[in-house]
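Researcher: Sit down with what I've pasted below and flag anything odd:
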Amino acid sequence: MAQIPSAPGPWPPAYPDQRPSVPGAVVSLVCGIVGVAVPIAGLVLGIIAIVQSRKAKAALAQNPGAYGGGGMATAGLVLGIIAVVVGSFWALYIVCGLVFLLTWVGPRHHFR
């Protein structure tokens, strides 16, 4: 009598590496993205992204097998640095514009 082949064994999990993200990685990434997208807030959000990324990298170094999301922390760090640079240029632009405006208006010209 012919034997019917049996069904294959259990399937391997679809996503074998389901570790939680390291604390601070998502915050760092979001602050970095928003800081680059909104340059006026980039100075503040970029600093927050850099600090959170450093904390996430430190937590990942202490427990490398317990957490995932090291790439998010790195991306947040890079975007945070870009946001600080762009935000600094915007702040400098605004300050120079205000100085020019106040110098041009000065005591000779008054708004009526």
Residues 25-105 form one domain.
